[in-house]
Amino acid sequence: MLSIVPTPIGNLADITLRALEVLKKAEMILCEDTRRTQTLLRHFEIQKPLLSCHEHSSPHRLEEILILLREGKHLALVSDGGMPLVSDPGFQVVHAVLQEKLLWEVLPGPSAVITALVLSGLPTDSFCFFGFLSNKGQRRRHELESLVDREETLIFFESPFRVVKMLQDMLDVLGDREAAVARELTKKFEEVLRGNLSELIKELTQKPRKGEIVVLVSGKGRKQVLPREVVS
């Protein structure tokens, strides 16, 4: 059995009772960064062998995981935070498990995408998540051009070091739409900035922010729903 286990995106108190139960029962835990997962497990006094599973893992590692599952082992797959497979290399493992027709399950739990969407104040009736856009300016603009006519709320992850450039490209390609920048969700310094793209660019240029960031942009033709000034 392979269990897909969401973990907190910041506040460790957000872990579910079911997630803790599975992590305690699993015979091994697959993770992106063993150091981050070890910190989580130590907090909840769980001791389990860890096996790294990330985008740079060799094909041999995937076969090693499949052998354990074929032997009847119970493995838990976690990411560094949130739901595994969302902007995360765990998809390769799940795809292989599906091909082999092995047992697997998914636990509900913390998600930066959904948390940011609800906090943003932007429409939640229809939305789409695109992960990280390209870090190359021209390619990023091409990616945004393909989204110009989308009417749902658009959601992205971004580095704090590139977020202003990303917002500027959005302003140039999408127009001055309403948007939100959510950072450090569920953590001590959680903050959500809301306003038009031009307002957010000005705010983040004058006062750069650090931390993990989610950017949300209103879809085409959506009516105004946010206050006219950037607020936190």
Describe this structure in words.
By secondary structure, this protein is of the alpha/beta class. It folds into 2 domains: 2-106, Cobalt-precorrin-4 Transmethylase, domain 1 (3-Layer(aba) Sandwich); 112-217, Methyltransferase, Cobalt-precorrin-4 Transmethylase, Domain 2 (2-Layer Sandwich), CATH 3.30.950. Helix content is 35%, strand content 19%. A 5-stranded parallel β-sheet has the order 3-2-4-1-5, covered by helices on one side. α2 links the parallel β2 (28-31) and β3 (50-52). α6 (137-145) packs across α7 (163-174) and α7 (163-174) runs antiparallel to α8 (197-206). The radius of gyration is 19 Å and the shape is elongated. The N and C termini lie far apart (44 Å). 32% of the residues are buried.
Please indicate the count of domains.
Answer: 2
CATH superfamily of the largest domain: Tetrapyrrole methylase, C-terminal domain
Distance between the termini: 44 Å
Multimeric state of these chains? Answer: single chain
Please give the share of residues in helix: 25-40%
* Series of secondary-structure elements, N-terminal to C-terminal: EHEHEHEHEHEHEHEEHE
Shape: elongated
Strand order of the largest sheet: 3-2-4-1-5
Major β-sheet, in short?
Answer: 5 strands, parallel
Give the class from helix and strand content and strand pairing.
Answer: alpha/beta
Number of helices: 8
**What's the gyration radius in Å?**
19 Å
